[in-house]
Design goal:
Rossmann fold; about 260 residues; 7 strands
Length: about 260
Amino acid sequence: MDLQLKGKVAIVTGASKGIGRAIAQLLADEGMRLTVAARSRDDLVSLAAPRGDACLVQAVDLRLPNAPAAVVEATVARFGRLDLLVNNAGATTRGDFLTLPDTDWADGFALKFFGAMRGARAAWPHLQASRGAIVNIVGIGGRTGSADFAIGGSVNAALLNLTKVLADRGVKDGVRVNAINPGGIATDRLKTRIQSFAAERGLDPSAAEGEMARSFGVARFGQPEEIARLVAFLASPQAAFCQGAIVDADGGQTRTL
């Protein structure tokens, strides 16, 4: 399937590792020119190096109020346009609601929610000009509450609502806005949780991964590349009738309507 992305321009936040890095790699393979943004310059440079001038590195802290707009400005200055914004940056602290300090709540919203909101606001005129798209990488915790994921679930729920808000505006402005809710994806963060799970139960890592997946009600964990392929589809004209869609990519973990 030709996704018709060649020559177009994308920003991918949180691109230094995990899902974001897989998204950036796949979009580059589809012929897109990229800006990759995250705090880790070295990881971004290693990602961008094989792609030469077709990949712009922006080592920034997207929690800072002016940073998302600066990334958009740098992208348009380098490539002359913007067709896609992938809001992927953001991790939140797990823990007991009664002991989570305000600083953890503020940090969770600052990066994942406000970073995405500010990025969308800055990118919007350029996406309107190109009739482009936004894809928000959110998470199933925004749909199903969990006692140890109070911050993440709240941030994700807010970002899912923002997706619908922007999609509603996008009908008029010609900007498509959709979201993906990953479930358990085999990133370094999940692998760390599996290692802890294995240590607690005296299991080898492979057995622990299988048992942990079953405890989630899924046959296996997903791979970052599986999320990347969904992003590429939603970014492409092949998904032209998708507006405000929320795609659960979780192996069946979310069973509610």
